[in-house]
Structure formats: structure tokens, C-alpha cells
Amino acid sequence: MRRSVSGLLFGLAAGLLLAGPASAVTLSENGAVAHLQGTFENGDDEAFEQFLLRPRAQRLRVLYLYSYGGKIAPAARIAEMVRRAGMTTAVDATRAVCDSACTLVFAAGVRRHYVGGDQVFEGTSSRTGLGYHPARRQVNMVEGSHLSEGGSNVLKAVYARMGSHAAAEMLSRASINTVYRPSGATALKLKLATSLAAPL
Description:
There is one protein chain. The chain is α/β, with parallel strands linked by helices. Helix content is 36%, strand content 20%. It is built from 7 helices and 9 strands. The chain has helices at residues 2-18, 44-53, 72-84, 102-107, 149-161, 166-171, 184-189; strands at 26-30, 33-37, 62-66, 88-92, 97-99, 112-115, 129-131, 136-140, 144-147. Strand 8 (136-140) and strand 9 (144-147) form a beta hairpin. Helix 2 packs parallel to helix 3 (72-84). The longest helix has 17 residues, at 2-18.
């Protein structure tokens, strides 16, 4: 009995190791278009790297994003991979969100499509589209979230590397418990986005 239990535990452990890195985001593709959905967690950057390395008939050109954010570090590493791969990023502002850490990946696109961004009411009341706010860290259940200056500085540094300097300004337009969403006109003016139309 003890031997069979040990064998079962060994099998489970081996299965977990062979399964690859843990991932919270879901990645899918259809031809040259990929979709990333979910909350960024540790290990997602490794999963994304493996996703990019898969053999395929044609290279991935466009990455659609739908995420409420998550951990900054894996999102920042994914952003670097997106830029190196020369991918276009897209957010369908009529139905999707790209909040917080997700905006790092959006900024990494060599072209950035804020699809339907002209329908976003600028400010903190819209529920879809690009969403910016200062970095937060969860302290505990009683104290809740606190602003993280260090985290915000990381966000700003990544925006700068991606040439999206105006994204740092967006952070200051929100408070700890709000999300600031730019209109399509603002996104184009500040070069957060390069187009309000769907990528071809």
C-alpha cells in the first residue's frame, strides 16, 4: 500500500513538471491572430514564451488582449517578447478591457489598435477599453490595498522603453480605487494607440 501511494505521488509530481510552467492567462490562436485573456500571474511569461515558440504555418502578427491586469513582472516580460516578435497589439474597446499590467503589453505593440476607442467615454466611468491606475499592493484583508510607488515606477520604466511615455501620465489621472480610461481621440493624440480600427 505504501509503495502504491509513493508511486502515485511520484506520478503526480512528474505530471506537474511535464505540464510546463503554471499559467493564469489563456492563450489561443487562429491563423496569424492570437488572443491573451486572464489575469497575469507568475509563470505566465514562461507560458507565453513557449506559446510563441510553437511551430506554426504562419507567424503570429496580432495579439488581442482582454485582461484586468495582475502581476507587473510577468506582464513586463511578455511586453518585451511582444516587441521583439514585432507583433501588433489590439484591444476591442467595445467589449474588452486591458487594465493595469495589461497596458504594458498593449504598449509593446509595434502598432497598437484601440478598436472602437471612439466609443469610450474618457474618465473613470467607462467599463471597457484601456485602463490605467497607479500600482497597488495588497497589504492584508483589513488594510486592503496601498499605493506602490515602486510598482508605479516599474510601469513607467516599461512604458518608456516601449516609447509610450504618455502612458505614465495616465497613471496620475486615477486614484487607488479607480481606473482611468482614455477616449480614442486621446489615445491617438498621445500615441498610446496608432489606430481605432481593427488590424487587417
